[in-house]
Amino acid sequence: MTHQSKSAVAFIAIGLLIYAGLYFAAEQLMYRNGHSNPFFKIATATTKDFDWVILGASHAMPLDFSDFNNQMQNQTGLKIINLASPGTGPLYNRFVLEAFVKEHSVKNVLYIADSFAFYSRVWNEDRFSDSKMLRATPLTQNTMELLWRYCWSDGVDPRSFLDYLTGFSKINNRDRFQKDVWEGELQFDRVYRSSASAIKSRISYLFPSSDREAAMARYIAQFGKLSDTARQQNVRVVVIKMPAPAAFRAALPNEKAFDEALRGTLAARGIDLRDFSGELDEPRFYFDTDHLNRAGVSELFARYLKALLMEP
Amino acid sequence: MIFTSLEFFVFLPLTLLVFAVVDARWRCTWLLLASCVFYSAGHEVYLVYLGSVTVTAYVLGWGIERAAGGRRVALLTVGIVGLAGSLLAFKFYDFAAGEIERLIDATLAGRSFSLPRLGVASPAGYSFYVFSALSYLIDIYLRNVSGEQRAVNVALYLAFFPKILAGPIERAPAFLSQLGNRFSWNSANTVLALQLIVWGLFKKVVIADNLAPLVDRNFAIAAFAAPLELLISVYFFAFQIYCDFSGYTDIAIGVALLFGIRLMDNFRRPYLSRSTAEFWSDRWHISLAHWFRDYLYIPMGGSRAGRLRQYFNVMLVFVVSGLWHAGLGYGVGWGFLIWGVLNGTYQWISLATRGLWGRLGEAMPAVRGSAWLTILRILLTFHLITFAWIFFRAKSIGDALTVIRKIAVNLAEFPALIFRYPFTAEHAMGASLIALLLAVEVLDERLPIAQRLAAAPVPVRWGAYYFVIFGLLILGRWQAKEFIYMQF
User: Fold this and answer.
1) Closest approach of chain B CAs to the CA of A159, in angstroms?
2) Which residues of B touch A19 (CB under 8 A)?
3) CB B310 within 8 A of CB B351
4) Residues 6 or more apart from B297 whose CB is under 8 A from it?
5) Which residues of A touch B462 (CB under 8 A)?
6) Residue B181 pLDDT
7) Can you tell me the distance from the alpha carbon of B162 to that of B39, in angstroms, rounded to the nearest whole number?
8) Are the beta carbons of B470 and A22 separated by less than 8 Å?
9) Which of A4, A15, A171 lies closest to B466 in CB terms?
10) In sequence order, what DSSP letters do the residues of chain A get, joined into one string?
11) Fewer CB atoms inside 10 Å of the end CB: C or N, chain B?
């Protein structure tokens, strides 16, 4: 080996050692600041067995804001874990559920369906590559294997696996010293003032894809796979639609087509759909255009959710 | 494909590997093929534009070489009009059509009038390879290079992937003469190439892309942004555009060096210039400045056709430079023209006062040689250039004037405001990165950093490397944006 080769090997070896140290520090920081990421919750859950897992996108998240999940558990005597995450559709939700059932057991899944999440890969395949998600996902062998499988068979970008494996998003995290709190949680007690332009921009953000019919068929099928995964584990699935203000509901494109497609899939699998979307129309129940605030989730829980969760 | 993408970090080693093992006769062909893959990644149609320019340059070059007398001039004219015309059409036709419609609508009081639109933007890097093609034809005409080149070599001259998106605008004689060289691996060149690549990446993803969010935010809402924020944004933008563009150039030169090809320098610590003339002629975007000097300024008579003509030629170069810069980066607008005129005006003032400064310097030799005067000149030049950048960056002339007005009106309050302003981590980070850049540039100005590193003990040298590499990993904004200049 020449002197230059030896130097190069030594340089790379020292570099790898520094990288390993950084990776370790970033992983520790992630555990210190973790909060709302579903994989963080799975990795740090102290209970093995749960009665309910809540899955969905951001509309499901207020049920775990502040101490609301604890309140629900105290009032029902049930063990509930909320694994919803912002902007995630059925493909990502299935990924979370599969990771969860590898380490825990659960009797029921409460799936909160949002039409937008069924209309674009932005809320499905692309979410796996989101550095905000990856940087808060603990490194575990189970997740690694699962992610590799999703890259291989479900069209997820292999770069997300590479990112997860190398811990790049954790090392490169600009918010490394901040708690991993979704911005909505900070507004949980806020009351929204209705705004047509805010609804318009929110809708155009949620529905970016133009080829919606093909996307919906694909992600309805993904939801079918999610419910099949649950059934294989003897887990009951209940699907609900969350309340939304009338103006927001009226602006949703293709909602009727989505409802029909979803009902068809659910009926074929004998799954219940409880549609609460027309409830709680008043702005005082929302902290923005479409997310329930503390008063909203309290009302929903008292009126419908408590009974639903306690159904035998 | 851009230099900061994961695809590029896979593409580069693979290209190098094949380049190293392939027979020497096929290396140019391989580099051309790789360049086409690089350029067309995700935009296959780009190859049509590149192919058209290449065929035009090759055929006309061959024709100019063989023709004589008026036919040579005619062929060169066809080439210049065709290539420059396509560039002008891509850049300005739709903008000009809109402006003409507005003018006619205003004149005809409400009657609608519409012109057809091209509806296509020029492909990435088009300005750069069209300028290379123009220089190739002119150099053949001037007999600086033969027009009977191998087609592969001409195509590679225009398409060579390290430089195709944002230069340097390499000259055909210098580039083509290197293609015949026998490539041999050289550790000193490799180290230099890797230093350039890593430092270029640092300038782009750490410095430029960390300054960009604050700049973008404030320039987007100039009318509502706080005056101090605007002032900070103006300073940050000066360094953002420098690091973005020179970062690209460093990577391009470094990557080319890995293949044994030396590209020309494009930046030499421009913000240490002592005059705007020095800035534009020797330190900033040198390949473009020299292109304008050799193919526009000198053919127009340069400084030899009388004082008035010199002033005209100088302004013409800067106006054309302003038009060249108008493009997709910050839209096509009149601001680029103002930017060009402003920089041309600086040169006029510089020309007009040159004698006066010379006499003053002779009268006060101690002052002329003092470090304080040098620092003062550097600061003044930097502020003149930075002032002109406002028109370059703002969305419109109106926005640029808003920025200037808000800063000017509040200028007196800034010293007091600085002590009670709620600066954020973003401000601190930007300022620290700029300080680091300036420290490196000052050291490099005195003795090149590469030489300093070569002479330094191993722990210091490696420490510097690790600092930059891990800086890239920890602070880099890898998900950020394309290089600004590749959109021109």
Assistant:
1) 8
2) 470, 473
3) yes
4) B313, B314, B316, B317
5) 11, 14
6) 67
7) 10
8) yes
9) A15
10) --HHHHHHHHHHHHHHHHHHHHHHHHHHHHHHH--S-HHHHHHH-S-SEEEEEEEESGGGGGGGSTTHHHHHHHHH---EEE---TT--HHHHHHHHHHHHHH-EEEEEEEE--GGGGS-GGGTGGGGG-HHHHTTS---HHHHHHHHHHHHHS---HHHHHHHHHTHHHHT-TTTTS----GGGGGTT------HHHHHHHHHHH---S-HHHHHHHHHHHHHHHHHHHHHTT-EEEEEE----HHHHHH-TTHHHHHHHHHHHHHHHT-EEEE-TTS--SGGGBSSSS-B-HHHHHHHIIIIIHHHHH--
11) N
Query: In whole angstroms, what separates CA B322 from the centre of its chain?
Result: 12
Neighbours of B399 (CB within 10 A): 20
Domains located in chain A, CATH noted: 34-310 (3.40.50.1110)
Strands, sheet with A105-112, edge to edge from the N-terminal-most edge strand: A80-82, A49-56, A105-112, A236-241, A272-275
What percent of chain B clears pLDDT 70, i.e. is strictly above it?
95
Give the B window 403-462 contacts with A, CB below 8 Å. Answer: 462
pTM of the full structure: 0.87
Distances B86 to B124, B226, B232, B247, B416 between C-alpha atoms, Å: 14, 42, 38, 29, 52
Cis preceding-peptide flag for B168 (omega within 30 of 0):
yes
Predicted ipTM of the assembly: 0.83
Torsion of CA B469, B474, B476, B478, to 10 degrees: 100
Closest chain B residue to A162, measured at CA:
B6
